Amino acid sequence: MPAARVEECARAWPAGYVVHHYTRCLGDLSGGQVPRDMAEKTWGFDRKGDGVRFYVFDGIPNPAAFKRGYRALLDAVDVDDLEKRRMVEECRLAFDHNAAVPRALDREFPRTAA
């Protein structure tokens, strides 16, 4: 469902797509190192491997400056209050989808006792 929703927004509602990008990218840039570490330890992923590559931001030398600039661009978007509320609701949905990923991994690849 999460991938389908992102695809739907990409086709039909660009602001919704931006919301998913914002939630995923900035969330991972801000706190993604914790789930990356967990995935490495729990499922044996390599830091530069495909399983956790989306948590690695080597191309962003200053994450704080990048996040400030990204937020400034979003703040400058000219939308009415109804669209803002719609975007906030989509942000909540995106956050829920993103939080479901580790749970799905746990179901698919149960942790084993060390």
Could you explain the architecture of this structure?
- With 114 residues, the chain is mainly alpha-helical.
- It has a single domain (2-108), classed as Heme Oxygenase, Chain A (Up-down Bundle), CATH 1.20.910.10.
- The chain has 5 helices and no strands.
- The chain has helices spanning 2-12, 14-31, 33-43, 63-75, 81-108.
- Helix 1 packs across helix 2 and helix 2 packs across helix 5 (81-108).
- It is globular, with a radius of gyration of 16 Å.
- The N and C termini lie far apart (33 Å).
Report a brief summary of the structure.
71% of the residues lie in helices and 0% in strands. The chain has 114 residues and is mainly α.
Distance between the termini: 33 Å
The CATH topology assignment is Heme Oxygenase, Chain A
Task: Specify the CATH architecture.
Answer: Up-down Bundle
Shape, per Cα inertia axes: globular
What is the domain total for the residues?
1
Write out key terms for the chains shown.
114 residues, Heme Oxygenase, Chain A, globular, single chain
Set out the fold topology.
Elements lengths: L1 H11 L1 H18 L1 H11 L19 H13 L5 H28 L6
